[in-house]
Specification:
single chain; mainly alpha; 16 helices
Amino acid sequence: MTDADTALLLARIQFAFTISFHFIFPAFSIGLASYLAVLEALWLKTGKDHYLNLFKYWLKIFAIAFAMGVVSGIVMTYQFGTNWSVFSDKAGPIIGPLMAYEVLTAFFLEAGFLGVMLFGLERVGKKLHFLATCMVAIGTAISAFWILSVNSWMHTPVGWAMNDKGQFVPAAPWIEIIFNPSFPYRLVHTVIAAYLTTALVVGGVGAWHLLRRHATAEVKTMFSMAMWMAALVAPVQIVVGDLHGLNTLEHQPAKVMAMEGHYESHPNGAPLALFGIPDDEEERLKYAIEIPKLSSLILKHDPNAPLAGLKTIPKENRPPASIVFWSFRVMVGLGMLMLLLGLFSLFARVRRKLYDWKLLHRFALVMSPAGFVAVIAGWITTEVGRQPFVIYNLLRTADARAPIDAPAVATSLLVFVITYFLVFGTGTIYILRLMKKPPHPGESAPAHAPIRTAGITPSPSMHRHGGANARPDQNEEAR
């Protein structure tokens, strides 16, 4: 392997690491922001305090997750100017404006209302605070809109032309570029995944406290709402995923071939490989366990429909099938478990055992991180399946990297790994500590939450200035 190949591999590993770490937080905060808006709306409509207590409980967790998402996102974007400067130069006339729209709309909207949402519950009117919460939730959705539009254009580029500098420039109305062929499917699929991720976390926290016999109104409410989301949205996600797969087959057939493990073409109907070991060197799926014609039925809605295989594509243009094959199965397998959890909760609800069945609670607790694993597996399927192109069929990944030496990339990668695990690991541990405590009557908002980090207790001056809640009972519970 040459120095250039090593630098390319390290740059790809670095981007995969940082974007995987980053997407964990938006996948949670997008859904959690909407959940907070629903909780506050229910409190305003019904006046029931347990909705307000839940709102304050999850608001503190949202604040930390949102902050870590912003920080990790800023760090990630610097790589466009360091490891991928050639890509930035060539695709900048199209990618740049779309990223700017995200800042001008979503980021400013979130920044403008986030402070009111976090610290204004007891300082502004109820309606204004609810407006701020809704604006933050809308801002997270708008952010997803623009980021996914950029990503989708890289998968299905349209409306472009090449100028005399070798750059991609707009050659069609922006609406055509923004709403490129894969964008609607990817947007809906990703946002639903964020809602499911949040529901599983909320449900897992509720299940944890039910197992610990903390069956308060707040705990029951959060668990019930999460199980409704799993039961109603998981089937929708499966349908949306099927439509997204059909769109991918139309525009990126090599990705679907790798997902299915199809090296050979099947003129009379392709089997669905449940398991197997893809071998790119021998160009076959070893030890395959297959269901005849089911792949054609799923992808073409006709069991006898022909499907082409990877052998119809030049080797230099194929994605690595082994990675895509298994990441896809991880995503689908977890999706089926989410559906099973939702159905199990419906059965328990009908039997009036939703808060009593320990098996359901243990299942929900085990599934609480499944959403994060599924979204990462989905992104691996999407991005590795696009290889060897960074802009599909137009710009190769190897031609998009910056002329930077391997030792420099390795050094920055090592720094990223150490820093991310220290900083974001600490933040994650703190979130888990907050989740470990059950929500309770009189739950404090972030501006009044007890501060106890690394053994440091609030000082009297902090109590006087509102930096921590001075109530002895809440400080005792923080201990």
